Amino acid sequence: MRALNACKSLSVLSLAALLAACAGAPQASQPASPSVPGTVITPSSSAMPQLTAYHWELVAMSDHQGRSDTRWRQASQRAPRLQFDNGRVSLHNLCNVVSSSYQLRGSTLELMQGVSTRRACAEPALNELEQRMTAALSGAMSYEVRNNAGGPPLLVLHFNDASRWELKGTPTPQTQYGSAGERVFLEVAPHRVPCNNGVAANAQCLRVREIRFADNGVRQSTGEWQPLYAEIDGYQHEPGVRNVLRLNRFKRAQAPADASTWAYVLDMVVETERVR
Length: 276
Prior knowledge:
Blueprint: E1 2-4, E2 10-13, H1 15-21, E3 39-41, H2 47-52, E4 54-62, E5 81-85, E6 88-92, E7 98-105, E8 108-117, H3 124-137, E9 140-147, E10 154-159, E11 164-171, H4 173-177, E12 182-188, E13 193-197, E14 200-213, E15 219-222, E16 226-228, E17 232-233, E18 241-251, E19 262-275
Parallel strand pairs: 17-19
Antiparallel strand pairs: 1-19, 2-8, 3-9, 4-5, 4-11, 5-6, 6-7, 7-8, 9-10, 10-11, 12-14, 12-18, 13-14, 14-15, 14-16, 18-19
Helix pairs in contact: 1-3
């Protein structure tokens, strides 16, 4: 039997409505650790390329009194991440992906009405964190970028209630590979298969086939199943689950002899099906 995941649609959400839903959330705090020092980059139009050149992973959060709030640390979950791209900022690594258009005016960061996927969250703590962080984003006021000698840049967001987020920058795939990449769709089979992955003995590879869609979303063609001699950045495979993924594929300029010449980065899980 096959059980389909019915949570695949997108809908427009009001960040203000989410703010009202989270207004009564308790504040768990403790003394804050000092911010990471660095050279402050004065926000301006020149800061735009720097924001979009990195993924920004949350490393610290403080409340309106400057006390550290560690509730964003969820067991077995990757840290929440912000991504700036094509005039939109999106919040990742929670139950849903929340995104909003934004504008920069000097040091001011202004977010507009957002959209969100509508997946049910099985973990109450993660669902509560998603609501609080989404609501907080609606109150973003200003930002600064700190460049640290010998380390990653740090993005500091300031909010209208005097709370603050600190986020560490990691180069985006576009920055890392020097190109925009190619959009592809891969169907991932429920189980890995044995494969001869270069020098790795007894390797287990994802089993995939490429899917091509017409502009209207109708499936045009489906390729043959084959092992994928690379992992997909941002994707964690669950045995017994079939997925259709929207990916960005990048040509690696200097791939190791025992590695794939292509790098795959997850953009979106399009379809999920648990196979029993």
